[in-house]
Amino acid sequence: MPPIYARDERRHTGFSVRLSAGIGYGWAKRKLPRGSSRVHGLDGMLSLDVGAAVIENLIVYGRVAGFGWNQLGAGGSDNAGSAYAGMLGAGARYYLMPWNIYGSASAALAVLKITNDLGEPQNANPGLGLDLEVGHDFWAGTPLDRRSIGVALRFAWVHCGSADTSSSDPKPWNAFALSFVFSVGYN
After folding, report:
1. 146 half-sphere exposure, CB direction, 13 A CA radius
2. Under 8 Å CB-to-CB from 46, ≥6 apart: which residues?
3. Which of these, 16, 41, 74, 94, could form a disulfide with 69 (CB 3.0-4.6 Å)?
């Protein structure tokens, strides 16, 4: 049988790079002595993963990621305007072959910036972040090509300490985002 008609036996090996962008819904919340402060709305996210396969179909990568949203609604704080989170960390992605379905997780150092609608910051101290993702990649081109496009669902969580020094018991911010993700990659 000519190679062009042979079953596609591609595997994930070697160098890997992946650029992802998504849209979804995000919210950030901080408990206060009287009620809570929160901001939520449609989010946009962007990430870049660079890594390599340590064994066939298991990729370990470094990730730079961020997500943010402008207010669709706020509670406890009439002037909450927007929230932005940035993460720098590492993770792993495992592919179930030959279906090319994957699951991934990454842990990161995170920063969170909350602004009011006057643009004044209500920042949080650096903290921790976590991304969980499930998706499907589609190979591009011939069986010799290593490019792919993909779709996925990503959940991101950021926990950062409050930068409010006026309180004896500053409460942390927690931010969450659930996004539908599109990606392009090479592996």
Report:
1. 11
2. 20, 21, 22, 65, 66, 67
3. 41
Identify whether the C-beta of residue 92 lies closer than 8 Å to the C-beta of residue 73. Answer: no
What six digits make up the tokens of 18? 């992946």
Q: pLDDT by residue (tens digit) across 52-64?
A: 999 999 999 999 9
Span 7-48, pLDDT tens digits: 567 888 999 999 999 999 998 887 766 666 778 889 999 999
What's the residue count for the chain?
187
Residue 3 banded pLDDT, cuts 50, 70, 90? low
CB-based contacts of 176, cutoff 8 Å, min separation 6: 26, 27, 28, 155, 156, 157, 158
Residue with tokens 């002595």: 33
Residue 1: its pLDDT value, please? 47
The domains located in the chain, with CATH, are: 15-186 (2.40.160.20)
CB of 122 closer than 8 Å to CB of 115: yes
The pair of three-digit structure tokens given for residue 109, joined into one six-digit string: 């150092």
Residue whose structure tokens are 């009287």: 34
